[in-house]
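User: Show me sequence and structure for the first protein, then do the same for the second.

Assistant: Starting with the first protein.
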Amino acid sequence: MIVRGIDKGKSFDWGKTSADYAKYRDIYPQEFYDYILNLGLCKDGQKVLDLGTGTGVLPRNMYKYGAKWTGTDISENQIEQAKMLVKEAKMDIDFFASRAEDVSFPDNTFDVLTACRGVEASMSPETLAAWDKEHKEMLEKNAPENFTVKHYVSIAELQVRKSKNV
Protein backbone atom coordinates (compact mmCIF):
# COMPACT_ATOMS: atom_id res chain seq x y z
CA MET A 1 0.00 0.00 0.00
CA ILE A 2 1.31 3.46 -0.83
CA VAL A 3 0.06 6.68 0.75
CA ARG A 4 1.99 9.67 -0.57
CA GLY A 5 1.65 11.66 2.67
CA ILE A 6 3.25 8.90 4.77
CA ASP A 7 6.89 7.79 4.61
CA LYS A 8 7.55 9.87 1.48
CA GLY A 9 5.42 7.59 -0.67
CA LYS A 10 7.19 4.35 0.23
CA SER A 11 4.88 1.37 0.28
CA PHE A 12 3.78 -0.16 3.56
CA ASP A 13 2.15 -3.47 4.36
CA TRP A 14 -0.08 -3.82 7.44
CA GLY A 15 0.34 -7.57 7.05
CA LYS A 16 3.94 -7.40 8.28
CA THR A 17 2.65 -6.26 11.67
CA SER A 18 -0.09 -8.88 11.93
CA ALA A 19 1.54 -11.18 14.48
CA ASP A 20 2.28 -8.22 16.77
CA TYR A 21 -1.23 -6.82 16.29
CA ALA A 22 -2.71 -10.19 17.20
CA LYS A 23 -0.55 -10.38 20.31
CA TYR A 24 -0.56 -6.78 21.59
CA ARG A 25 -3.35 -4.70 19.98
CA ASP A 26 -6.40 -5.57 22.06
CA ILE A 27 -6.75 -1.86 22.54
CA TYR A 28 -10.26 -0.91 23.62
CA PRO A 29 -11.38 -0.52 27.25
CA GLN A 30 -14.58 -2.18 28.47
CA GLU A 31 -16.28 1.24 28.53
CA PHE A 32 -16.02 1.31 24.72
CA TYR A 33 -17.87 -2.00 24.39
CA ASP A 34 -20.41 -0.98 27.06
CA TYR A 35 -21.17 2.19 25.11
CA ILE A 36 -21.89 0.20 21.94
CA LEU A 37 -24.06 -2.24 23.90
CA ASN A 38 -26.00 0.61 25.53
CA LEU A 39 -26.88 1.83 22.03
CA GLY A 40 -28.50 -1.56 21.49
CA LEU A 41 -25.89 -2.61 18.94
CA CYS A 42 -23.77 -5.69 18.29
CA LYS A 43 -25.70 -8.09 20.50
CA ASP A 44 -28.61 -10.52 20.78
CA GLY A 45 -28.44 -12.21 17.38
CA GLN A 46 -27.83 -9.06 15.33
CA LYS A 47 -25.77 -9.66 12.19
CA VAL A 48 -22.75 -7.34 12.19
CA LEU A 49 -20.22 -6.51 9.46
CA ASP A 50 -16.92 -5.07 10.70
CA LEU A 51 -15.05 -3.36 7.85
CA GLY A 52 -11.32 -2.97 8.43
CA THR A 53 -11.44 -5.57 11.19
CA GLY A 54 -7.68 -6.09 11.36
CA THR A 55 -7.14 -9.04 13.68
CA GLY A 56 -10.80 -8.95 14.69
CA VAL A 57 -10.46 -7.05 17.97
CA LEU A 58 -14.03 -5.72 17.94
CA PRO A 59 -15.77 -8.96 16.92
CA ARG A 60 -13.68 -11.08 19.29
CA ASN A 61 -14.33 -8.85 22.28
CA MET A 62 -18.05 -8.46 21.57
CA TYR A 63 -18.71 -12.07 20.56
CA LYS A 64 -19.96 -12.97 24.03
CA TYR A 65 -22.90 -10.55 23.64
CA GLY A 66 -24.55 -12.75 21.03
CA ALA A 67 -24.17 -11.02 17.66
CA LYS A 68 -23.19 -12.97 14.54
CA TRP A 69 -20.02 -11.27 13.27
CA THR A 70 -18.37 -11.05 9.87
CA GLY A 71 -15.07 -9.18 9.57
CA THR A 72 -13.25 -7.98 6.46
CA ASP A 73 -9.85 -6.39 6.04
CA ILE A 74 -7.60 -5.49 3.13
CA SER A 75 -4.69 -7.40 4.69
CA GLU A 76 -4.73 -11.16 4.19
CA ASN A 77 -2.18 -11.51 7.02
CA GLN A 78 -4.44 -9.63 9.44
CA ILE A 79 -7.34 -11.90 8.46
CA GLU A 80 -5.20 -15.02 8.96
CA GLN A 81 -4.31 -13.85 12.47
CA ALA A 82 -7.99 -13.12 13.19
CA LYS A 83 -8.92 -16.63 12.04
CA MET A 84 -6.23 -18.17 14.26
CA LEU A 85 -7.39 -16.19 17.29
CA VAL A 86 -11.05 -17.12 16.92
CA LYS A 87 -10.15 -20.76 16.33
CA GLU A 88 -8.13 -20.80 19.58
CA ALA A 89 -11.04 -19.14 21.41
CA LYS A 90 -13.61 -21.48 19.80
CA MET A 91 -15.60 -18.56 18.38
CA ASP A 92 -17.79 -18.68 15.28
CA ILE A 93 -16.79 -15.52 13.41
CA ASP A 94 -16.38 -15.28 9.62
CA PHE A 95 -13.41 -13.35 8.26
CA PHE A 96 -12.63 -12.42 4.65
CA ALA A 97 -9.72 -10.56 3.05
CA SER A 98 -11.19 -7.81 0.90
CA ARG A 99 -10.85 -4.12 0.18
CA ALA A 100 -13.69 -2.20 1.83
CA GLU A 101 -15.03 -0.96 -1.49
CA ASP A 102 -15.11 -4.52 -2.90
CA VAL A 103 -17.19 -6.03 -0.07
CA SER A 104 -20.50 -7.19 -1.50
CA PHE A 105 -23.39 -8.88 0.28
CA PRO A 106 -27.09 -9.02 -0.61
CA ASP A 107 -29.25 -6.20 0.76
CA ASN A 108 -30.38 -6.64 4.37
CA THR A 109 -27.65 -9.19 5.16
CA PHE A 110 -26.49 -7.14 8.16
CA ASP A 111 -28.23 -5.24 10.93
CA VAL A 112 -25.14 -3.28 12.01
CA LEU A 113 -22.03 -2.05 10.22
CA THR A 114 -18.88 -1.08 12.08
CA ALA A 115 -15.86 0.50 10.35
CA CYS A 116 -12.47 0.68 11.99
CA ARG A 117 -10.03 3.47 11.01
CA GLY A 118 -8.63 3.56 7.48
CA VAL A 119 -11.62 3.74 5.15
CA GLU A 120 -10.20 6.78 3.41
CA ALA A 121 -6.68 5.32 3.36
CA SER A 122 -7.85 2.30 1.40
CA MET A 123 -9.93 4.01 -1.31
CA SER A 124 -9.19 5.86 -4.52
CA PRO A 125 -10.48 9.44 -4.67
CA GLU A 126 -13.34 8.34 -6.97
CA THR A 127 -14.34 5.42 -4.74
CA LEU A 128 -14.15 7.62 -1.65
CA ALA A 129 -16.39 10.22 -3.31
CA ALA A 130 -18.94 7.51 -4.11
CA TRP A 131 -18.69 6.16 -0.54
CA ASP A 132 -19.15 9.67 0.89
CA LYS A 133 -22.22 10.22 -1.31
CA GLU A 134 -23.81 6.92 -0.26
CA HIS A 135 -22.94 7.55 3.39
CA LYS A 136 -24.48 11.04 3.27
CA GLU A 137 -27.68 9.64 1.73
CA MET A 138 -27.87 6.98 4.44
CA LEU A 139 -27.42 9.61 7.18
CA GLU A 140 -30.07 11.89 5.64
CA LYS A 141 -32.48 8.96 5.56
CA ASN A 142 -31.74 7.52 9.03
CA ALA A 143 -30.15 10.13 11.29
CA PRO A 144 -31.51 13.33 12.84
CA GLU A 145 -30.39 16.59 11.27
CA ASN A 146 -28.00 17.30 14.16
CA PHE A 147 -26.17 14.70 16.18
CA THR A 148 -22.91 14.34 18.06
CA VAL A 149 -20.01 12.25 16.85
CA LYS A 150 -17.67 11.64 19.75
CA HIS A 151 -13.99 11.04 19.15
CA TYR A 152 -11.30 9.87 21.49
CA VAL A 153 -7.60 10.41 20.92
CA SER A 154 -4.87 8.97 23.05
CA ILE A 155 -1.18 9.70 22.70
CA ALA A 156 1.43 7.89 24.72
CA GLU A 157 5.10 8.74 24.63
CA LEU A 158 7.01 5.75 25.90
CA GLN A 159 10.66 5.52 26.81
CA VAL A 160 12.73 2.53 27.82
CA ARG A 161 14.14 2.87 31.32
CA LYS A 162 17.67 1.65 31.70
CA SER A 163 18.05 -0.60 34.68
CA LYS A 164 20.91 0.11 37.06
CA ASN A 165 21.51 -3.63 37.34
CA VAL A 166 22.40 -4.03 33.67
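Switching to the second protein now.
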Amino acid sequence: MHWIELDKQWLLALNGSDSVFLDSLVKTLTTATTWIPLYVALLYIVIKNSDSLKQILIIVGCALLCVFLAGSLDDMIVKPLVGRWRPARDPDIGISVDIVNGYRGGRFGFFSAHASNTFSLAVFFIWLIRSRLLSVGLVIWSLVNCWTRIYLGVHFPGDILVGLLWGAVVGTCVWVFYSKVSKRAVAPANYVSSQYTKTGFLRKHADIPLCALVAILIYALIKACFI
Protein backbone atom coordinates (compact mmCIF):
# COMPACT_ATOMS: atom_id res chain seq x y z
CA MET A 1 0.00 0.00 0.00
CA HIS A 2 1.23 3.49 -0.81
CA TRP A 3 2.63 5.37 2.19
CA ILE A 4 0.17 8.23 1.63
CA GLU A 5 -2.76 5.85 2.06
CA LEU A 6 -1.14 4.40 5.19
CA ASP A 7 -0.66 7.91 6.50
CA LYS A 8 -4.37 8.59 6.05
CA GLN A 9 -5.32 5.35 7.81
CA TRP A 10 -3.06 6.14 10.76
CA LEU A 11 -4.56 9.60 11.01
CA LEU A 12 -8.11 8.24 11.11
CA ALA A 13 -7.07 5.70 13.75
CA LEU A 14 -5.47 8.33 16.01
CA ASN A 15 -7.61 11.39 15.36
CA GLY A 16 -10.24 12.71 17.76
CA SER A 17 -12.48 11.11 20.35
CA ASP A 18 -15.96 11.42 21.84
CA SER A 19 -14.59 13.07 24.97
CA VAL A 20 -15.44 16.71 25.65
CA PHE A 21 -12.73 16.65 28.32
CA LEU A 22 -10.05 15.61 25.82
CA ASP A 23 -11.31 18.11 23.26
CA SER A 24 -10.87 20.94 25.76
CA LEU A 25 -7.51 19.64 26.97
CA VAL A 26 -6.12 19.42 23.45
CA LYS A 27 -7.36 22.88 22.46
CA THR A 28 -5.53 24.33 25.46
CA LEU A 29 -2.32 22.40 24.88
CA THR A 30 -2.13 23.19 21.16
CA THR A 31 -2.41 26.95 21.76
CA ALA A 32 0.96 28.70 21.61
CA THR A 33 0.17 31.16 24.41
CA THR A 34 -0.40 28.27 26.82
CA TRP A 35 3.34 27.63 26.83
CA ILE A 36 4.46 31.18 27.57
CA PRO A 37 5.48 30.26 31.16
CA LEU A 38 7.86 27.66 29.72
CA TYR A 39 9.47 30.23 27.43
CA VAL A 40 9.79 32.67 30.33
CA ALA A 41 11.38 29.95 32.48
CA LEU A 42 13.92 29.14 29.75
CA LEU A 43 14.72 32.83 29.34
CA TYR A 44 15.15 33.14 33.11
CA ILE A 45 17.77 30.41 33.33
CA VAL A 46 19.57 31.80 30.29
CA ILE A 47 19.76 35.19 32.03
CA LYS A 48 20.86 33.68 35.35
CA ASN A 49 23.57 31.54 33.77
CA SER A 50 24.99 33.91 31.17
CA ASP A 51 28.14 35.96 31.64
CA SER A 52 26.97 39.07 29.80
CA LEU A 53 24.14 40.75 27.94
CA LYS A 54 25.88 39.75 24.71
CA GLN A 55 25.67 36.09 25.74
CA ILE A 56 21.96 36.43 26.49
CA LEU A 57 21.26 38.10 23.16
CA ILE A 58 23.16 35.41 21.26
CA ILE A 59 21.10 32.65 22.88
CA VAL A 60 17.81 34.46 22.38
CA GLY A 61 18.79 35.17 18.78
CA CYS A 62 19.57 31.49 18.23
CA ALA A 63 16.19 30.48 19.69
CA LEU A 64 14.46 32.91 17.32
CA LEU A 65 16.56 31.53 14.46
CA CYS A 66 15.26 28.05 15.31
CA VAL A 67 11.69 29.29 15.04
CA PHE A 68 12.36 31.05 11.76
CA LEU A 69 14.15 28.16 10.08
CA ALA A 70 11.90 25.44 11.48
CA GLY A 71 8.48 27.08 11.26
CA SER A 72 8.38 30.34 9.37
CA LEU A 73 10.13 29.01 6.26
CA ASP A 74 7.81 26.00 6.38
CA ASP A 75 4.70 28.20 6.44
CA MET A 76 5.97 30.62 3.80
CA ILE A 77 7.62 28.22 1.34
CA VAL A 78 7.23 24.48 1.97
CA LYS A 79 3.49 24.23 2.68
CA PRO A 80 2.31 26.21 -0.38
CA LEU A 81 4.98 24.59 -2.57
CA VAL A 82 4.11 21.00 -1.62
CA GLY A 83 0.39 21.76 -1.40
CA ARG A 84 -0.66 18.75 0.66
CA TRP A 85 -4.12 19.21 2.14
CA ARG A 86 -4.61 19.11 5.87
CA PRO A 87 -6.58 15.99 6.90
CA ALA A 88 -9.74 17.92 7.74
CA ARG A 89 -9.64 19.51 4.26
CA ASP A 90 -8.56 16.42 2.33
CA PRO A 91 -11.13 15.59 -0.41
CA ASP A 92 -10.75 11.84 0.23
CA ILE A 93 -11.06 11.60 4.02
CA GLY A 94 -11.99 15.10 5.21
CA ILE A 95 -15.59 14.10 5.93
CA SER A 96 -14.36 11.27 8.19
CA VAL A 97 -11.97 13.38 10.25
CA ASP A 98 -13.09 14.38 13.75
CA ILE A 99 -12.75 18.12 14.27
CA VAL A 100 -13.06 20.21 17.43
CA ASN A 101 -15.17 23.37 17.49
CA GLY A 102 -14.96 23.66 13.71
CA TYR A 103 -11.17 24.05 13.74
CA ARG A 104 -9.55 22.78 10.53
CA GLY A 105 -6.35 24.84 10.29
CA GLY A 106 -5.13 26.42 7.07
CA ARG A 107 -5.29 24.85 3.63
CA PHE A 108 -2.00 22.96 3.56
CA GLY A 109 -0.25 20.96 6.27
CA PHE A 110 3.02 19.47 5.03
CA PHE A 111 4.98 19.62 7.17
CA SER A 112 3.90 20.44 10.72
CA ALA A 113 5.28 23.76 11.95
CA HIS A 114 4.17 22.85 15.49
CA ALA A 115 6.38 19.76 15.34
CA SER A 116 9.38 21.47 13.76
CA ASN A 117 9.18 24.60 15.92
CA THR A 118 8.87 22.85 19.25
CA PHE A 119 11.42 20.14 18.47
CA SER A 120 14.00 22.60 17.10
CA LEU A 121 13.76 24.59 20.34
CA ALA A 122 13.84 21.40 22.41
CA VAL A 123 16.96 20.13 20.63
CA PHE A 124 18.72 23.50 20.82
CA PHE A 125 18.12 23.82 24.57
CA ILE A 126 19.04 20.17 25.12
CA TRP A 127 22.45 20.88 23.58
CA LEU A 128 22.71 24.21 25.39
CA ILE A 129 21.87 23.17 28.95
CA ARG A 130 22.72 19.45 29.05
CA SER A 131 20.32 18.50 31.84
CA ARG A 132 18.95 14.98 31.46
CA LEU A 133 15.65 15.64 33.21
CA LEU A 134 15.07 18.88 31.35
CA SER A 135 15.92 17.14 28.07
CA VAL A 136 13.24 14.52 28.73
CA GLY A 137 10.77 17.25 29.68
CA LEU A 138 11.41 19.25 26.51
CA VAL A 139 11.02 16.18 24.30
CA ILE A 140 7.72 15.35 26.03
CA TRP A 141 6.61 18.97 25.52
CA SER A 142 7.25 18.72 21.78
CA LEU A 143 5.56 15.32 21.48
CA VAL A 144 2.49 16.57 23.36
CA ASN A 145 2.19 19.38 20.82
CA CYS A 146 2.54 16.83 18.02
CA TRP A 147 -0.20 14.66 19.49
CA THR A 148 -2.60 17.60 19.67
CA ARG A 149 -2.19 18.26 15.94
CA ILE A 150 -3.11 14.68 15.03
CA TYR A 151 -5.98 14.65 17.53
CA LEU A 152 -7.40 17.84 16.00
CA GLY A 153 -7.12 16.40 12.49
CA VAL A 154 -4.93 19.21 11.17
CA HIS A 155 -1.82 17.11 10.45
CA PHE A 156 -1.12 13.62 9.20
CA PRO A 157 1.40 11.50 11.15
CA GLY A 158 3.76 11.92 8.18
CA ASP A 159 3.55 15.70 8.54
CA ILE A 160 4.53 15.31 12.18
CA LEU A 161 7.40 12.91 11.48
CA VAL A 162 8.96 15.17 8.85
CA GLY A 163 8.46 18.17 11.13
CA LEU A 164 10.30 16.40 13.95
CA LEU A 165 13.17 15.43 11.66
CA TRP A 166 13.50 18.96 10.31
CA GLY A 167 13.27 20.37 13.80
CA ALA A 168 16.11 18.10 14.97
CA VAL A 169 18.27 19.22 12.04
CA VAL A 170 17.54 22.91 12.66
CA GLY A 171 18.09 22.68 16.41
CA THR A 172 21.41 20.90 15.97
CA CYS A 173 22.63 23.22 13.21
CA VAL A 174 21.74 26.31 15.24
CA TRP A 175 23.61 24.81 18.19
CA VAL A 176 26.67 24.31 15.97
CA PHE A 177 26.37 27.93 14.88
CA TYR A 178 26.07 29.00 18.51
CA SER A 179 29.17 26.98 19.39
CA LYS A 180 31.13 28.92 16.80
CA VAL A 181 30.16 32.35 18.08
CA SER A 182 29.96 31.76 21.82
CA LYS A 183 32.75 31.11 24.29
CA ARG A 184 30.30 29.25 26.49
CA ALA A 185 29.76 26.51 23.89
CA VAL A 186 32.60 24.51 25.41
CA ALA A 187 32.29 24.49 29.17
CA PRO A 188 35.22 26.02 31.07
CA ALA A 189 37.30 23.58 33.08
CA ASN A 190 36.15 24.99 36.42
CA TYR A 191 32.60 23.67 35.95
CA VAL A 192 33.36 20.35 37.61
CA SER A 193 30.92 20.55 40.53
CA SER A 194 27.87 18.31 40.50
CA GLN A 195 25.86 21.50 40.97
CA TYR A 196 26.49 22.40 37.32
CA THR A 197 25.71 20.76 34.00
CA LYS A 198 28.51 20.11 31.51
CA THR A 199 27.89 23.48 29.89
CA GLY A 200 27.95 25.44 33.16
CA PHE A 201 24.25 25.78 33.94
CA LEU A 202 23.19 25.39 37.57
CA ARG A 203 21.21 22.19 37.84
CA LYS A 204 18.73 23.76 40.25
CA HIS A 205 17.93 26.36 37.59
CA ALA A 206 17.30 23.62 35.04
CA ASP A 207 14.44 22.42 37.27
CA ILE A 208 12.54 25.69 36.75
CA PRO A 209 11.32 24.92 33.19
CA LEU A 210 10.29 21.46 34.41
CA CYS A 211 8.16 23.07 37.12
CA ALA A 212 6.66 25.34 34.47
CA LEU A 213 5.80 22.33 32.30
CA VAL A 214 4.11 20.53 35.19
CA ALA A 215 2.19 23.68 36.16
CA ILE A 216 0.97 24.15 32.57
CA LEU A 217 -0.22 20.55 32.34
CA ILE A 218 -2.07 20.86 35.66
CA TYR A 219 -3.65 24.11 34.48
CA ALA A 220 -4.77 22.47 31.22
CA LEU A 221 -6.25 19.48 33.07
CA ILE A 222 -8.14 21.68 35.55
CA LYS A 223 -9.43 23.90 32.76
CA ALA A 224 -10.67 20.87 30.82
CA CYS A 225 -12.54 19.60 33.88
CA PHE A 226 -14.66 22.72 34.09
CA ILE A 227 -15.69 23.05 30.46
